[in-house]
Amino acid sequence: MSFRDRHAIPDLGVGVGFRIPHYPRVLDSTERLMDWFEIISENFLVAGGRPLENLSRLADKYRVVPHGVSLAIGSVEPLDTSYLAKLRALVARLDPPWVSDHLCWARAPGVHIHDLLPLPYTREAVDHVVERVKRVQGSLERPFALENVSSYMTYRDSTMTEWDFLAEVAERADCGILLDCNNVYVSSRNHGFDPAAYVDAVPADRVVQMHLAGHTDKGTYVLDTHSDHVDDEVWDLYRRAVARCGAVSTLVEWDDDIPEWEVLAAEAAKARAARAEVLAAPRAAEVG
Amino acid sequence: MATLAETQAVLAVALRRSAPLAGDPELSAQAARIARGNERLSPVEQVDVYREQFWLRHVDVLRDDFASIRHALGDEAFERLARAYLEACPPASFSLRDLGEHMPRFLAERAPWSEDPFLAELAKVEWAFVDAFDGADAPPFDPASIAGRTEDEWPRARIVLHPALQRLSLAWPSHDYRVAARKGGEPERPERRACRVVVYRGPELLHYLEVEADAAAMLDELARGAPLGEACERVAREVGAANGDGASLEALEGKLAGWFADWTSLGWIRAVRFGEGGA
């Protein structure tokens, strides 16, 4: 039985991130504006006040899934138990079908770098992350999904491809995958690999969610900025991923230069249409 | 092959370097042994992508959290301050929300900023707003909870304030300066004037209110969990001594009903406990 079936992972449709400029529109509207919302977990790991009030109002109307940026699953520093306790409380409040964070490291002795730093793709890193994912998943008592990150550096010590690394971690830790199609594309441009090969190698049955976002070409590298429309080549990758993975919840991220709600909603509608088109095609899985 | 711990330790040092890595031959050599590089970016330049982001991200957060200090110093001087702060107090919490928590102390202690105590006070005010914004909640005050209480029960009552309420003792009206600076104005640095300010959450927004010295002293007493009778005696003593007029307990008690009504309507008072168990 697949990971998605074992954990009864639902297809939530297409959602967007819950971001401050859209709070009034989303919370005050009597219409149902979106299939679901993703929140950045850390923004709501606070004691009280407006953040939690807004979250309650959102959760009253929509399915909400927390997506973290600070777990630092690949750091050698011990897991932050205080962070995990707060995340567990957030999970209890929202009862989401899964929880996600990034396959990266971010903490070192005395400092939290607040970035999604790639790991060297080595046996040691696989073993390290697998153990920590098991602990996190057990602690949260909720399916946990790892997202592939955009990266701007590669390691001399890596002994496998990123997609093999991701697949092995997910299989051995028995966790889900949040496949970020833009991140695959950004990293493929930065490191010169075939993004289609990446998508084709991901264990399809473990993909519980996909991300779409825009990026910025900085000349010597491509930066994952979430500040623009989804690029055409990322749309192509997304279609390929849907053909391979099937009906998987999709999320459009837009975190910088945030547009009017209608622009974001149109991008989500575009994802919905692309997804529907691929899923309606006969033998979609043949693409993969 | 470096261990994962060795790799992360080297990169953590490299990313915290405020200038490009190329300026540090030893660190560059270490980074080059870790990163592979490609035809467009050398190994050191790859690491520098992350190093630049480290500084951009964290300076941006401080710029937002301490907007009035940026106004007071100007952009370039603020950037120097932010970088010095981050070097002295590197981000340690999982949340960027906590990044600036040491700024009031840093400004008070570290030259040259410590030579201008107005800056540390502005930081204290800015941080009070951060804490008021997402501090803990408490259920609203229930008027029924005090119904039927006799007069002789009140001296032993403990009044519970909203846990996110921030009480500030200031040497300048820095709160006014903060608001004007954040509204995009060009406020002049204010004249020195001691004042007491409460920062609190309203139904929609954060608010602040300047309060009289005796009211502020009473709030301090209530916040430390003093029973009402003891609080009144102490405040009367302290305020009377400060004013040199020996303000009477009676005069203070005359204000209590008004304060109680105001502070419950503002949401500052959340409960009254009549037991001996404390707040």
Give a structural overview.
The complex is a heterodimer of chains A (288) and B (279). By secondary structure, chain A is α/β, with parallel strands linked by helices. Chain A has helices spanning 3-6, 23-28, 50-61, 81-94, 123-140, 162-173, 181-191, 195-201, 232-245, 261-280, and strands at residues 14-17, 36-40, 63-67, 99-102, 105-108, 111-117, 144-147, 176-180, 207-212, 216-217, 222-223, 249-252. Chain A has one domain (3-287): Divalent-metal-dependent TIM barrel enzymes (TIM Barrel, Alpha-Beta Barrel). Helix content of chain A is 41%, strand content 18%. In chain A, helix 8 (195-201) packs parallel to helix 9. The longest helix of chain A is centred in the last third of the chain and has 20 residues, at 261-280. Chain B is mainly α. Chain B starts with a helix and ends in a 6-residue tail after the last strand. Classes of the chains: A alpha/beta (288), B mainly alpha (279). At the A-B interface, helix 3, strand 6 and helix 5 of A face helix 1, helix 3 and helix 7 of B.
What Rg of chain B is obtained from the alpha carbons, in whole angstroms?
25 Å
Order of SSEs of chain A, N→C? HEHEHEHEEEHEHEHHEEEHEH
Number of domains of chain B: 2
Strand order of the largest sheet of chain A: 3-2-1-12-9-8-7-4
Task: Write out the CATH superfamily name of chain A.
Answer: Divalent-metal-dependent TIM barrel enzymes
Largest interface pair:
A-B, 46 and 47 residues
Q: Helix- and strand-based class of chain A?
A: alpha/beta
Structural class label of chain B: mainly alpha
